[in-house]
């Protein structure tokens, strides 16, 4: 069974993430979405909230997708999960240099795990969780940026009403 890991903070999950998840789930027998508990970041959502939101939005996609929180090195998490591949999304050329360095380091640490880069679909190339948070913070409309079921979760974190109200 070919296992893949798609790691990230997902704070919050965006339609760009969903694009990568849908495509990656077709490349492996089991896709584990690894929600990183990154001590260097100050996330808007708790790790439990991010896992819960992801489980909700991927639940109907495919039965080969799991969501799990982790902390530490992604490559070590992948190794523990017997993954053969780490899947990373690339939005722009600027992402590539950083991601390549991480992929090469991961391969040095664990040579049996490769990294596969998927370029984000053009309609999501500009999109990031930080952009979503910034727009939502000022009560801007994020409904075209995140899955419909989590729009209000984001606004609620800022104590705002949904743009649909």
TrEMBL record:
The record marks 17 as: Transition state stabilizer. It catalyses: (R)-4'-phosphopantetheine + ATP + H(+) = 3'-dephospho-CoA + diphosphate. InterPro entries: Cyt_trans-like (IPR004821), PPAT (IPR001980), Rossmann-like_a/b/a_fold (IPR014729). Pathway: Cofactor biosynthesis; coenzyme A biosynthesis; CoA from (R)-pantothenate: step 4/5. Substrate binds at residues 9, 41, 74, 88. GO terms for cellular component: cytoplasm. ATP binds at residues 9-10, 17, 89-91, 99, 124-130. One of its GO terms (molecular function) is ATP binding. It is found in: Cytoplasm. Its main location: cytoplasm. Its EC number is 2.7.7.3. Residues 5-134 form the Cytidyltransferase-like domain. Gene3D superfamilies: HUPs. It is an enzyme of class 2 (transferase). Keywords: ATP-binding, Coenzyme A biosynthesis, Cytoplasm, Magnesium, Nucleotide-binding, Nucleotidyltransferase, Transferase. GO terms for biological process: coenzyme A biosynthetic process. Its cofactor is Mg(2+). Belongs to the bacterial CoaD family. Homohexamer. Reversibly transfers an adenylyl group from ATP to 4'-phosphopantetheine, yielding dephospho-CoA (dPCoA) and pyrophosphate. This is Phosphopantetheine adenylyltransferase. It comes from Anaeromicropila herbilytica.
